[in-house]
Structure formats: structure tokens, C-alpha cells
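Working notes for the structural subgroup meeting. M.R. asked for a predicted model of this chain before we commit to crystallization trials. I am recording the input and output together here so anyone reviewing the notebook later can reproduce the run.

Input as submitted:
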Amino acid sequence: MTNKKSDDQDRIVIKKYANRRLYNTATSSYVTLDHLSQMVKDNTDFVVYDAKSGEDITRPVLTQIIVEEENKGQNLLPISFLRQLIGFYGDSLQGLVPSYLEQAMRAFGHNQEQMREYMQGTMQGMFPFGQFEEMNKQNIALFEQTMKMFSPFMQDENGEPTGEGPKKPTAPGAAKTDASLDELKSQLEAMQAQLNNLAGGKSGK
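Returned structure, recorded in C-alpha cell form:
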């Protein structure tokens, strides 16, 4: 049984009952996965507990929301990405995946937020679509490169796994991984510099 954290007072507590109904203790009302999805989009912090055992089930509930959204046709997760992600379960590199995914998505989200600010603050017809399209491509390329670098499977030219296992690490391979990490860091810094330059250009007008 998972103990409830003391900081739950700063988060909305959702209880899930055996009949799969979700109860929002803050509003004293039953809610649906769609409600929780909107709460996430509104940056409303919440935690979900099993009403009977008290276990923290926030992760599986959030995963269920993703499945529901994907089933509605809102496809954000490419098949190749899902294959790679599944391949990491039980792999020796499994522990590294969450931090790299979080880092990549944080960088992506940061750039996306700045793009929205430019769209809202720039006069109509003056928005530099081309430059932000290029940044979006860089975001996606960076995310894919992060995943491929730690993929437990070899890939063919189409990005599909070949079924071959990873080669045993060697000293040169370790150096190559370090170089890849440095390259990712450099790309993140370059993307941030590009955003700063655009911000400076806008403020100077």
C-alpha cells in the first residue's frame, strides 16, 4: 500500500472505485477520463488513488487517458516509437529512458510555448512561419535521435527494428555514446540560441 504524500493537500485527490468510477474529492462529484484529460491540459495537478487499497494509480490512469485519446484518432505516438518504447521494458537501459524522455519533452514543450507567445504577440502577417517550422523539425529530429541512441534493437533504413540485439559495449562504443550526448546537448543549446535571437529581433522592432 502506498502512503499518501503530505503534499497531497496541494493537489486534487481523485479516488477510483471498483466500478471504475472516478470521484473528485475537491468538487465532491464523479468525473470521467475526459475530465481528467482536460485537467492535465489546464495544468491542474491531481493524484489518483485506488479507493479500496489507497494505492497511487496515477500513472496507469494517465496511460489510460493516452490510450483513449489515441483510440479517438488523435495519433501522437508513431508506431516506430511505440515499438522502441516497448523494447526498453526489461532492458538494461530501462532506467535511463524516463529521464531522457522527460528531458526531450521538456525541451520540446519549452519551444512550443515560445512559439505560441510569438503567435499571440506578433502582428498579423508578420509571423515568421518558416523559422518556427524549422525549429519544430529540429525538435522532432532531436526527440527521435534521443530514442534511437538508446534503442535496444538495430534498425533498418526505414527505422523499423530488425530483431537483432544490441552489440556488447566496448570502450570505443562508450566514447561514441559520450559524443552523441555532447551532440544532443549542443543541439539543445543551438535551438535555445535561435529562440533568443528571434526574441531579440522582435523586441528591437
